[in-house]
Amino acid sequence: MYTFKGDTTLAAVSELRTKFDEILRQARDHKVVIEKRNKPAAVLLDIDQYTKMEKLLEELGDIALGYIAKSRDKKSKASDYIDIDKVEREILDALEG
């Protein structure tokens, strides 16, 4: 196992068998890159850090979708939209019929 840049540890797949607890301890403080045949294969992160990253990515995705929707709305005409009441009636008719 080798730590560099102060915030990243490299660990070989083979070390997972013999040093698993130590590698997990390292992952609490910083990311651990798991290597297989000297090539990065996976990253081990603390669950709190992973959860924060997942939440941030979701928020960024929502922001991006908001910008896309706003842009499309500016380019759209009223005739591009479908009346929700009409759609509901068509769905109900299809389910009943």
Please indicate the percent range of residues in DSSP E strands (runs of 2 or more): 15-25%
Work out the helicity level.
55-70%
**So how many helices?**
4
CA-to-CA gap between the ends? 66 Å
What's the pLDDT, averaged over the residues?
Answer: 91
Largest sheet: 4 strands, mixed
If you compute it from the alpha carbons, what radius of gyration comes out, rounded to the nearest whole angstrom? 25 Å
Name the shape in a single word: elongated
Descriptive account of the structure:
This protein has 97 residues and is α+β, with helices and mostly antiparallel strands. The protein folds into 2 domains: 2-45, 3-Layer(aba) Sandwich (YefM-like fold), CATH 3.40.1620; 48-96. It is 60% helix and 21% strand. It is built from 4 helices and 4 strands. The chain has helices at residues 13-18, 20-29, 47-75, 84-96, and strands at 2-4, 8-12, 31-36, 39-44. Strands 1-2-3-4 form a 4-stranded mixed beta sheet. The protein is elongated.
Write the layout of secondary structure elements.
Elements lengths: L1 E3 L3 E5 H6 L1 H10 L1 E6 L2 E6 L2 H29 L8 H13 L1
Parallel strand pairs: 2-3
Antiparallel strand pairs: 1-2, 3-4
Short note summarizing the structure:
The protein is of the alpha+beta class.
Features:
2 domains, 97 residues, alpha+beta, 21% strand, YefM-like fold, four-stranded mixed beta sheet, single chain
